[in-house]
Amino acid sequence: MEFDFEEIRCYQNEEIHQVLERLSNEKQFMKVLSTIYPLLPKDVIKQRIMSYKTSYAFQKEMVYPFLQYLEANKTKGITLNGLEKIDISKSYLYISNHRDIILDSAFLCGKFIEKNMDTVQIAIGDNLLISPWIEDLVRVNKSFIVKRGLGARQILESSKRLSAYIAMTLEENQSIWIAQREGRAKDSNDRTQESLLKMFNMYGSGSFIENLTKLNICPLSISYEYDPCDYLKAWEMQLRRDNSCFKKNAQDDLLNMETGVMGYKGKVVYEITGSINNELKKIAEETSSRNEQITLVTELIDRRIHMNYNIFNVNKIAFDILKAGNNFTSDYTDIEKNEFEKYLVLQISKIDIENKDISFLRMKILEMYANPLINKLSIYPTFLEEGE
User: Fold this and answer.
1) Are residues 118 and 152 in the same domain?
2) Cα(92)–Cα(277) distance, rounded to whole angstroms?
3) Which phi-psi region, left, alpha or beta, contains residue 287 (left: φ > 0; alpha: ψ -120 to 50)?
4) Nearest Cα residue to 117 out of 177, 49, 60
5) Can you give the residue range of the structural domain that contains 387?
6) Same domain membership, residue 321 and residue 301
7) 146 domain residue, yes or no
8) Less crowded by CB within 10 Å, the N or C end of the chain?
9) Is the whole-model pTM more than 0.90?
10) CA 258/CA 254 separation, integer angstroms
11) Over the stretch 90-120, which tens digit does the pLDDT of each residue have?
């Protein structure tokens, strides 16, 4: 079956110069770049943009320096672990938990650039493409588009096309990053959507397990010490609690993107967990039921992600507060706990909402920080005694 990828694919290298020329004439885009690089005159920025001929060159020379700035000023350092678990000559479908709209994939690409590795193609929902120049920018930056908000028939056709695009991209030895679910897990209770695996399976001609094996799925665990969007997520949770019809608008998405990028994140750790192909074979031997296989594969991906969380003291403090216990008090100081309590008050103070429910908002932010530890303990109960 022939598929038309024009609407969703990232731009090819032969298109990059023309698209960057178009972007250089966009006032909003140039304003963003002038904010990011305040010491460079606009004509110098424009000249530099026009010099790039490939996506990788644009990423390495224009995007990566900004990622370095963020790492130096908005984090305590970004660590990438697990490269020994992959073969860098092969392509992988990296499936990860989703914390930050922009930076989850951006920081990963930045670390790959540091290792002289090729960057990944990135799956991004079209709900974030608020204006045409943003779509141009993400597609230059090796992003492909996932269509949202479609009717039942459109969803089926779009899913088939997306499945084909992913499979064909991997066959061309280009790795891909995709979140394990649509949208971020607001409470940090990361779970893979079964619908994602069903979509992956649509293009292949083999069995469910055979089709997934060809994709070389590699779960990726992302841990942020602090989530600058925690208060925005809590704000959204109360609004959804109070009004079941609540939906974020474009301005809300922009605020989340800006806060996520420019807010303080503390330590950031990426843990590559390796291909799941050997485990997929075991699942195929265990059951021939497709539904059971889907459930077992989602559980496998979740287990890999949960097991490989990096647990910070803020996670332990939140866990102890939430459980009204002292399981981890030997791992953190009273000063650290007091600082985290102050942090909670500060974040909640940023929330401007009618009928503000402080106890609910506090509990939700605590859950965000405790859930990675709760999930890790569910797989690795001895972590409680051993520490990390």
Assistant:
1) yes
2) 11
3) beta
4) 60
5) 229-262+311-388
6) no
7) yes
8) N
9) yes
10) 6
11) 999 999 999 999 999 999 999 999 999 999 9
